[in-house]
Amino acid sequence: MQRRAASRGCTAVRLAAEMPASFVAFDVLQAGGRLLLKEPYAVRRARLERLFTEDAVAPPWLLCRATDDVRVAQEWLTTWTRQPGVEGLVIKGRAQHYLPGVRGWYKVRRRDTTEAVIGAITRTLAAQESATGPLRHTRHLAAGRRSGHPVAAGP
After folding, report:
1. Domain of 121, in residue numbers
2. I want to staple 42 with a disulfide (CB 3.0 to 4.6 A). Which of 59, 94, 119, 130 is the partner?
3. Based on the domain organization, do 68 and 47 belong to the same domain?
4. By the 8 A CB rule, do 44 and 25 touch?
């Protein structure tokens, strides 16, 4: 998605075809003009499921799977998290209300991921040039931006 967001014109159209995006819904906070924040998660989840069935919501919109069965959740944790981009499971209480600005759910991670921007100064100190970019799986810096005037980090 990050590559698509930074693209324009023909490149954006090509990347959208090559890497289609999906929206995975796991909760609904408003439906039919009615706020559902004070409803328990079980009511919100049932309303979300009805949106997908009654309103025939279809891809690229996807309904996140949910279960109350611990064995099913354990199986998901071991099989689904093998996929790139899936770190673990989110656990919510069925009676839980939505509290804006408060993290009221738990994330069980199978693996931790970290995003970072790596920077470097090339040439000599007298003729500095900086480069920033993502660290690829090959552990080589992919120059995303160059500047003749690097910005100092820290005090």
Report:
1. 117-147
2. 94
3. yes
4. no
